[in-house]
Design goal:
heterodimer; A: mainly beta; B: about 120 residues; seven-stranded mixed sheet; about 0% helix
Chain lengths: ~110, ~120
């Protein structure tokens, strides 16, 4: 699976939007961009995924750059419960079923 | 909302003992996974399972590990002879479809402590 690069950490304030970046310059045309998060002492949790178009769901939005070399997970209104480690993961079509987790990015939400 | 459950939440065992970690995947899911996370480290894939067969396994998943779906609801991970380095959080996950455009749903994990 192609590699992703995320900041080690970010801080945000409660009730404000937060944009979590991910770079994936070696992405291939069939790679899906997945985001998972892991709250403290819990298992990973699926957040959102996309291929080319921007995606919205009840948890977040995913903005994908036109060249697909980067993406941004958008939490529209951060809450304390959003404090977690966020993982940006590429999954290649026809490849393995496994998720390959990196170190992720720790999001701190200040009250 | 359906969820993956795991038991026990914490298992303490002595080195050399066998342990079985249990998972109940989401009921209509067909694809099952085990991952582990050593304290302070990345989440690592162990094995995937479909149609009563292992479909993929990692280098970590050696002969000491086995998986089984003993009935229609449970999915188990057995470690035959535990080592100190097996101490970790073990996460079960399930998915209703295969493929890289589908998500996996994780359980809360079992903390395994080997003494």
């Amino acid at each position: 699976d192609a590699k992703t690069t995320q900041p080690n950490s970010m801080e945000s304030n409660e009730e404000e939007p937060v944009h979590l970046p991910c770079n994936h310059s070696t992405i291939s045309g069939t790679d899906y961009i997945h985001w998972y998060r892991q709250l403290p002492s819990q298992g990973p949790e699926y957040v959102i995924h996309g291929l080319t178009s921007n995606v919205n769901n009840r948890m977040a939005s995913l903005a994908i750059a036109e060249d697909r070399k980067s993406s941004t997970l958008i939490l529209h209104r951060a809450t304390l419960r959003d404090a977690a480690v966020y993982y940006c993961i590429l999954r290649g079509a026809g490849g393995s079923e496994k998720l390959v987790f990196g170190k992720g990015m720790k999001l701190t939400v200040n009250p | 909302e359906p969820e993956v459950t795991q038991t026990p939440s914490h298992q303490v065992t002595q080195m050399g003992q066998e342990v079985i970690l249990r998972c109940v995947p989401i009921s209509n899911h067909l694809y099952f996974y085990w991952y582990r996370q050593i304290l302070g480290q990345k989440v690592e894939f162990l094995v995937s399972f479909y149609n009563n067969e292992i479909s993929e396994k990692s280098e970590i998943f050696d002969d000491q590990f086995s998986v089984e779906r003993p009935d229609g609801s449970n999915f188990t991970l057995k470690i035959r002879s535990t080592k100190l380095e097996d101490s970790a959080m073990y996460f079960c996950a399930s998915s209703d479809r295969s493929g890289t455009s589908y998500e996996q749903y994780f359980g809360p994990g079992t903390r395994l402590t080997v003494t």
